[in-house]
Amino acid sequence: MWKIVPRDEKFFDQIEQLSHLAKSSAQLMNDLVGRFPTVDGLPDQIGKAKVEAAQVMETTLGRLDDAFITPLDREDIMQLITDLYDVIEGVADVARRFSLYKMTQLYPNVRRQSDILCKVATALDEVMSKLRDDKKLKELSGQLNEIHDLQKQATTNRDAFLSELFSGSPDPLEVMKKKELHDMLEDAIQHCENVTRTLGRVLLKNG
Questions:
Q1: What's the CA gap between 118 and 175, in Å, rounded?
Q2: Among 17, 2, 131, 3, CA closest to 63
Q3: Prior bond to 6 cis, omega within 30?
Q4: What is the pLDDT of residue 93?
Q5: For the chain, which domains are there?
Q6: 20 to 30 A Cα–Cα from 130, which one of 38, 71, 152, 207?
């Protein structure tokens, strides 16, 4: 008599671990920007989240190699954990710049972008927690659209930032630092958008 082999549900645990780490990293980044120039060890905390995320990713890859039946296609699990790790790594890269650059003030638009990143990562974490419930794409469309709208706000902020950054006679070195920080924050937001695109494809495939 054949015994049905259960699918390994722990993959959902690990996907959710990564989405929680993405959310907490974004929240720490928002705190860092809000407290600047007093960073209070926040870059180190964000760096530790990246290390933890790398460990989760490594564990997931090992589980994928060993698992007989997975709850989602292997390539979809791989893409989701890669996209989520990219978010965490992107935030950690921004935090590292705060440690390396000796800046005394931030451009106001950086604060707005950091706030958007925090909101996007929070909404993303909520969506990812529902993946194990076999939700259909239309059931999560509201939250996915919210993330997309926030990403469009980030693009609008970037346009305003660039038009203001080069006005007058700014110090070239300060311009470079501010632009790189802003670009890296936008990249982190874009990584969140990449997660939602992967998730949308997964939901359509399995719905």
A1: 24
A2: 17
A3: no
A4: 94
A5: 10-206 (1.20.58.220)
A6: 152
Contacts of 123 (CB under 8 A, 6+ apart): 143, 146, 147, 150
pLDDT of residue 134: 66
Query: Concatenated DSSP letters for 79-101?
Result: HHHHHHHHHHHHHHHHHHHHHHS
Q: What is the pLDDT of residues 27-56, one digit of tens each?
A: 999 999 998 888 888 999 999 999 999 999
Contact of 137 with 200, CB cutoff 8 Å: yes
Alpha-helical (H) ranges within the chain are 10-35, 42-66, 74-100, 108-128, 141-165, 172-206
C-alpha to C-alpha distance for 22 and 123, rounded to whole angstroms: 11
Rounded distance, CA 196 to CA 55, Å?
A: 23
Residues with Cβ < 8 Å from 65, sequence gap 6 or more?
A: none
Rounded to whole angstroms, what are the CA distances from 50 to 45, 55, 143? Answer: 9, 9, 26
DSSP classification of residue 167: S
**Residue of 87 and 105 predicted with greater confidence:** 87
Band of pLDDT at residue 14, cut at 50, 70 and 90: very high
For residue 131, what are the CA distances in angstroms to 13, 33, 64? 10, 31, 18
Q: Which amino acid is located at 106 in the chain? A: L
